[in-house]
Amino acid sequence: MMTVADLERIRPVNRENVERHKERMLAEVRAWRLKEIREQAGLTQQQVADRIGVSQKQVSKIETGDISNSKITTIRSYLEAIGGKMAIEFVTGDYRLQVA
What is the pTM of this model? Predict the structure, then answer.
């Protein structure tokens, strides 16, 4: 019978790829949750876009986790439009400090 160690020798795991995929998946989960919160608030993407002065496409990008090119002010406005607020944390190892 093949063990996990045997399998890893045959097909080594690229931990960097695993972490990259893990982060992507977590971003998608967070984005999906934002969409759910917006829908629970009874708002469409277009309504949120109109409230914060961006395109519906930009709201869609936020809700799919594509925020790498989004301005912090846009994300903050989005979160406020759906009834929340933004918090920014400094994280190093197990230490977390909310800075905004």
Answer: 0.75
- Listed in sequence order, the residues at least 6 apart from 53 whose beta carbon sits closer than 8 Å to its beta carbon are 77
Reading the block at residue 10, the tokens are: 């045959």
Q: How far apart are CA 5 and CA 3, in angstroms?
A: 5
- Of 61, 11, 5, nearest to 34 by C-alpha is 61
Rounded CA-CA distance 50/65 in Å is 20
Dihedral of alpha carbons 57, 51, 84, 43, sign? negative
pLDDT of residue 17: 92
**What domains are defined for the chain?**
4-98 (1.10.260.40)
Whole-number Å distance between alpha carbons of 85 and 87: 7
pLDDT digits (tens, 9 = 90+) for 70-87: 999 999 999 999 999 999
